[in-house]
Prior knowledge:
Layout: E1 3-8, H1 11-22, E2 29-35, E3 49-55, H2 65-86, E4 90-97, E5 100-107, H3 110-117, H4 122-138, E6 145-149, H5 152-174, E7 178-179, H6 185-195, E8 201-206, E9 213-218
Parallel strand pairs: 5-6
Antiparallel strand pairs: 1-3, 2-3, 4-5, 7-9, 8-9
Helix pairs in contact: 2-4, 5-6
Amino acid sequence: MREVERSAASVEEALEAALAELGASEQEAVVEILQEPRSGFLRMGGQEAVVRVRLKQAGEDEPAEEDLDDQADAAAEFVEHFLDMLGVPGDAEPNLVEGTMYVDVWGEDGDGMGLLIGRHGQTLDALQELVRGAVQRRLEGRFRVIIDVEDYRKRRRSQLISRARGVAKRVSRTGRPERLDPMNAYERKIVHDALGEISGIETSSEGEDPERRVVIRRNRSVSRPARRS
Length: 229
């Protein structure tokens, strides 16, 4: 049974590194969070996230659906309490979309929701980590719920997949690797998963956050087409 442990500033970054080491998608693996990330005082004395990832064995069951429902309910409750503390009117409701469980956040004040998203989704990323940590302290298992504000995540996901598939098509035709714009770990995972279904294409990540990006290249095992004379 093959397994690896990786550490990084966030759970998503550590998971990305471990899956890359195994050459697997998250659906093909079992993830165990050994240590939560923690910020230190004045950025000193903090701790990184540590995950252990192993490949699933044949016939191994997926996490129970009721566990995911419990996580979503707990996350929605936490978000609504958080909105009350901020004085931002809004609601949070679980919503299963194409196999992904979201907690959708909608508000009466558009400006307040915009603040929750932040520039390039940075505040929403921080909210995701805050909710994940709070829920995992209450419930067992890896947190698999995505916090979304006014469908920002869903729109961004569609844009990323469309862009990545277009680049992959060009790479397949030209044979020249291409690098996408810098993304966070969550968005890089979306691209890796989407292009992992395309024959003849492989992806990897390079660089350091926040400039880390996905590289799309033709699979090395795929031979170049013969040139016509």
